[in-house]
Design goal:
The protein has a two-stranded parallel sheet. The chain folds into 2 domains: 45 residues; 69 residues, Photosystem II 12 kDa extrinsic protein (DNA polymerase, domain 1, Orthogonal Bundle), CATH 1.10.150.320. 10% of the residues are buried. 53% of the residues lie in helices and 3% in strands. It has 122 residues and is mainly alpha-helical.
């Protein structure tokens, strides 16, 4: 009977230690939860930035007088396309309208829409 008493005593000790361990984990949980609830929460929101903030107000570029170096700085126009514009202008004369740029190989409606407000044909 002494062995059975020792086994019961061991089980009670292990059960008590388990209860203490669980109580310790519960205390840690509530401490961390309280810390999270009291910490300030930062929300990052998207803000609309006006175009003037990242692109200064510049006057439109005249495609009839601008050199290839200036045309190449326009969005979607590289050095090759700028040279095509200058070559077309030299061969066919000045562009009557901005839409006439679509006659240049490599310029379509989408690219012309990207250039809207940035170019003129005077």
């Amino acid at each position: 009977m002494d062995e059975r008493g020792n086994a019961v005593k061991c089980e009670k000790i292990l059960l008590g230690l388990t209860a203490l361990f669980l109580a310790f984990l519960l205390a840690l949980f509530f401490r961390d939860r309280a810390a999270l609830e009291s910490a300030p929460v930062a929300f990052e929101t998207e803000t609309a930035v006006p175009q003037e903030a990242f692109m200064p107000d510049v006057s439109p570029l005249d495609v009839n007088s601008a050199p290839a170096e200036e045309l190449a700085k326009l969005p979607g126009i590289g050095e090759v396309l700028a040279e095509r514009i200058v070559d077309y202008r030299t061969e066919h004369g000045p562009f009557e309208t901005v839409e006439a740029l679509m006659e240049v190989s490599g310029i379509g409606e989408k690219k012309l829409a990207e250039l809207e407000g940035r170019i003129t044909a005077e």
